Amino acid sequence: MEGRLRFLLSKIVWLALSSSFVYCYDPSPLQDYCVAVDDINGVFVNGKFCKDPKRVTANDFYTSGLNVPGNTSTGPGSTITAVTVERMPGLNTLGVGIARIDFAPGGQVPPHTHPRASEILLVIKGKLFVGFVSSNEYNYTLFTKVLYPGDVFVSPKGLIQFHVNIGKTNAVVIAAAGSQEPGRIVIGDAVFGSNPLIDPNVLAKAFALNLNKVKYLQAVFSSKHNIRDYP
Ligand SMILES: *[C@@H]1O[C@H](CO)[C@@H](O)[C@H](O)[C@H]1NC(C)=O
Ligand SMILES: *[C@@H]1O[C@H](CO)[C@@H](O)[C@H](O)[C@H]1NC(C)=O
Questions:
Q1: Which of 44, 122, 171, 208 is the most exposed place for a label (fewest CB within 10 A)?
Q2: Does 71 sit in the ligand 1 pocket, CB within 6 Å?
């Protein structure tokens, strides 16, 4: 009986902790830093397990390797190398993120949104066509630019955006975001490649397509299963 009680209590504690984890968001960290650790031998602050501040070192705030180009021969001809909290535990709760994006000639980051943060791009190499579309309130207006090295472009949080390498060489972009994990919804993957699939009749009506075209798109997007490969 006592064992069962202990089990239930541990479940309740786990639920309480995991629900506060869900509601943790990063613009207001409430402390200098909360270097992420997986175990509970840390300090519990603001919904996360934080490493004991006395054991934090400079390496918690450091990573390297973004000089190495990503492999662009997969997916849509682009690849993202993101600095995640796993790679840099000190990033946790700080409300910023950064990534390197490599593009093959003709490669693209297909239309996608970042649900949790705006994103700002700095072109290091190449020539890119980038843009985003405003929401219904602003009449779905398309804003685009052709970017060259040194150019900077920002896309507001949550709006559909895309980046295309229109140059003859590889392109390199540094992307920074106002979140340690801005999230990524690739429109084609989410709409035509969801798991399980959305009823094709719904999509046929929604996108003014005949059923066979919807089924074709579902076959393409659900067989890729490379959602995580997509920037
Ligand atoms: C890049 O990815 C492709 C496809 O997965 C693979 O065949 C190739 O070996 C990779 N190239 C490098 C340099 O890792
Ligand atoms: C959107 O379109 C409406 C109707 O034509 C117009 O009144 C409004 O000014 C437009 N708003 C923007 C931000 O373009």
A1: 208
A2: yes
